[in-house]
Amino acid sequence: MAARRNTIRVTIRGERELQEAIRRYPEKVKDGVRDGLEAVGLMVQNEARESVLKGPKTGRRYKKTAGVVHQASSPGEAPASDTGTLVRSILSEVEADGLEVTVSAGTLYAKMLEYGTRLMGARPFLGPALNKVKSKAARVLKAYIQRRLS
Fold first, then answer.
1. Which of 22, 112, 113, 143 has the CA that lies 20 to 30 A from 89?
2. What is the DSSP string of 101-137?
3. What is the pTM for the complete model shown?
4. What is the pLDDT of residues 9-27, one digit of tens each?
């Protein structure tokens, strides 16, 4: 059975100037949007990975095999990395039409960590990564579009 993917989508709705540029230079603008969305997706991906690997962890500490001590996360914190599987599964992908980017975590347990369960508090990592990056997204997209138009 395939793992369900946790997905955050960023959809761009153009302003008047963007709409005009699309009408006049459709391929150049579309290429700029695709490049910009790829950059924004990678920013969200990297932010999510960073929060899992290096974010604050204040949960319980316990010994694993071979005496290795693991520091868990507390509810509300990004999950603590243990094997690296979650981090490796966080990927961004620009959709085929080039107008949408998806950032997802492909493990079976990613959704449980992001939203919590009735027995475990949420340990979000994708939503906070998007929130941290989205204020920069419009500037990044604009820069990539302008680069293609110049």
1. 143
2. EEEEE-STTHHHHHH--SSS----SHHHHHHHHHHHH
3. 0.84
4. 444 455 667 667 777 778 8
